Amino acid sequence: EVQLVESGGGLVQSGGSLRLSCAASGFTFTNYDMHWVRQATGKGLEWVSAIGTAGNTFYPDSVKGRFTISREIDKNSLYLQMNSLRAEDTAMYYCARVVWDLRTFDLWGQGTMVTVSS
Amino acid sequence: QSALTQPASVSGSPGQSITISCTGTSSDVGAYNYVSWYRQHPGKAPKLMIYGVSNRPSGVSSRFSGSKSGNTASLTISGLQAEDEADYYCGSFASSSPGWVFGGGTKLTVL
C-alpha cells in the first residue's frame, strides 16, 4: 500500500527540540521530493520544508535556521529536526510527497501533533 | 495570515454547484499553472482533488473542476453531495526560494 506514516510528535517546552519521522512505503522513495507541511488547529496549511531528490533543501523564513529536513534512503524515511521551538510552532505536522513536474502534493500522511508549551 | 486568500465559507444545497475562489499574486497563482486544490475532512489528512489548475487525479469525480484567470484560481463542484462537505484549500508553487503557499481554507457546507 502506498502510504506515509509520521511519528515523533509530542509536548515540548519552548526552546526545546523534537525530531519527527515519516516512514514511506509502496513507492520508490528516491523518485520524489518530500516535504513537511503543518497546520495549527483551526488554521490553514503552511509549507515548512522540502528536500529534493538530489538532497537539496528549502525552507520558508519562519523556520529557516531552526528546522532541518533530511532523508535516509536505506530506511525510506524522512525526518524533520526542530530546534529552538516556539509556541507558534504548535501544529499538526504532515509529511507529503511532491511530484516535481506538477509542483503538487499528491500523497499525505495522517500527521503527528507537536505542542510547544510556553 | 495565509498567502492565498479564500472565502471562509460557502454553502449549497444537494445537486447545486458552488465555486470557491483563491486569490494570490503575480509571484504565485498568476505566475505558474501550478495551482492545486485539496479537500480535508475533519481530523483527516488533506487529499489532492485538482492539480495543474484544472487536472483531476485518477479517482477524483468529474464533478470537480478548476480554472484560473490572472491571479485568481477557482474550484467548482457541481452536483453537490453530502460527502463534499469539508474544508477546501488551494495551494500554489511560488517564485520565492522556491516555495509553496496555501490558502486559509474554505468550509463547504452542504445544506
Describe this structure in words.
The complex is a heterodimer of chains A (118) and B (111). With 118 residues, chain A is mainly β. In chain A, 0% of the residues lie in helices and 55% in strands. Chain A contains no helices and eleven strands. In chain A, the strands form two sheets. In chain A, strands 2, 4, 5, 6, 9, 10 and 11 form a seven-stranded mixed β-sheet that branches. In chain A, strands 1-3-8-7 form a four-stranded antiparallel β-sheet, with no helix packed on it. In chain A, a hairpin with a 4-residue loop joins strand 7 and strand 8. Chain B is mainly β and 111 residues long. Helix content of chain B is 0%, strand content 45%. Chain B has no helices and nine strands. In chain B, strands 1, 3, 4, 7, 8 and 9 form a six-stranded mixed β-sheet that branches. Chain B has a three-stranded antiparallel β-sheet with strand order 2-6-5, with no helix packed on it. Chain B is globular. Chains A and B meet through strand 5 and strand 10 of A and strand 7 and strand 8 of B.
Provide key terms for this protein.
heterodimer; A: 118 residues; seven-stranded mixed sheet; 11 strands; 55% strand; B: 111 residues; mainly beta; three-stranded antiparallel sheet
